[in-house]
Amino acid sequence: MTPYPRKEHYTAEDLVEIIRILRDPDTGCPWDKVQTHASIRMNFLEEAYEAVDALDLDDPELLCEELGDVLMQTAFHAEMEEETGRFTWQDVCDGVCRKLIFRHPHIFGAQPGLEGINDWDALKNKEKGRTTLAGDLESVPKAMPALMRAAKLQKRAERRLGQTPPQPDAAAQAAAQAAAGGPDAEEAVGRLLFEAVRLARAAGVDPEQALQRRNEQFLRQAAGADAE
Question: Does 117 or 227 have the greater pLDDT score?
Answer without folding.
Answer: 227
